[in-house]
Design brief:
alpha+beta; 19 strands; three-stranded antiparallel β-sheet; 27% strand; single chain
């Protein structure tokens, strides 16, 4: 049943106030371009469009695809995929976990786009829209019949372009256009097919975690070498316990001098806690084990 059509080049829903009933609707089919009649106040089949002559193999995906391009280009707003990355653990040669695995899960939200245009040239093979935000360019593919396969993803990565895919396979075709616009811009599933900037960020994070771990081990070795025992390392940790509130890492449970990243394992899981709530007896064991198994 035809629920969406074209009115003066714009996709409309049968229930939109702009759609007049009967032959006065001036709407055409998004698939075949034939004239339509707006069947409103229908008790049996509900509101819908009907071809004035004959019919066609109507596919709502064509109207939804066109509507999505118009919605994003008109609003110049789109929600980016949430950042979900697993930073692997850093393991020593002896198999000890120096830095635990870290799951980064951050909601990015909607951004305002400076310019939106139809993708052209080689990018048109895998994308529908070209978006510019500040000095950065990214592309959007509107998927109505399946997600991009490996070949398309490989093309995006080879050309080093940022390509976001919005999955409209289950778009609600029976709702009005205002709700459908919200679904396209914010609610529909989306993912990064290729994101060079994100890829470089992950690479740098992994490199930094390894470097911080190596520096931490060297500090432990130097402390033990200087005093002949591990007491120098323990002293720094136990001194922090005299404070009313301290920074504690949720990953390695050690106290940190930084409130953003653990100064021992580089984890971002650092919180302010009361000194009285920290298990003092666990600190010597954790530090000794960290040094002994990685030395």
């Amino acid at each position: 049943m035809v629920k969406m059509a074209l009115l003066n080049g714009w996709v409309v829903h049968i229930d939109d106030p702009a759609v007049q009933p009967g032959n006065d609707c001036n709407c055409i089919c998004s698939n075949c371009g034939a004239a339509l009649v707006a069947m409103k106040n229908e008790k049996s089949d509900g509101n819908h469009f009907a071809h004035t002559v004959g019919s066609c193999n109507y596919d709502p995906a064509i109207a939804i695809h066109l509507f999505a391009k118009q919605a994003i280009a008109g609003a110049k707003v789109v929600k980016l995929p949430d950042l979900k990355v697993i930073l692997p653990a850093v393991v020593s040669e002896k198999g000890m976990t120096l830095v635990p695995e870290l799951a980064v899960n951050k909601q990015i939200g909607a951004i305002r786009i400076d310019t939106v245009s139809v993708a052209a040239g080689v990018e048109a093979e895998i994308a529908d829209l070209r978006c510019v935000k500040g000095g950065s360019t990214f592309f959007i593919r509107l998927a109505t019949k399946g997600l991009l396969e490996h070949e398309g993803a490989d093309i995006a990565k080879q050309r080093d372009i940022s390509l976001m895919e919005i999955d409209l396979t289950n778009a609600p075709v029976t709702c009005d256009t205002k709700k459908l616009q919200t679904y396209v811009i914010e609610q529909s599933p989306r993912r990064w097919v290729s994101n060079p900037k994100l890829r470089r960020w992950v690479k740098n994070q992994i490199s930094d975690r390894k470097a911080n771990s190596a520096r931490h081990i060297e500090v432990l070795k130097q402390d033990v070498k200087r005093v002949g025992s591990i007491s120098a390392v323990l002293t720094a940790q136990m001194t922090l316990l005299t404070l009313s509130t301290v920074n504690q890492c949720g990953a390695c449970q050690l106290l940190s001098t930084s409130s953003e990243f653990c100064s021992h394992c580089s984890s971002s899981n650092v919180t302010k806690v009361k000194s009285s709530g920290i298990h003092k007896e666990a600190l010597p064991t954790l530090i000794r084990q960290r040094y002994k198994e990685s030395a």
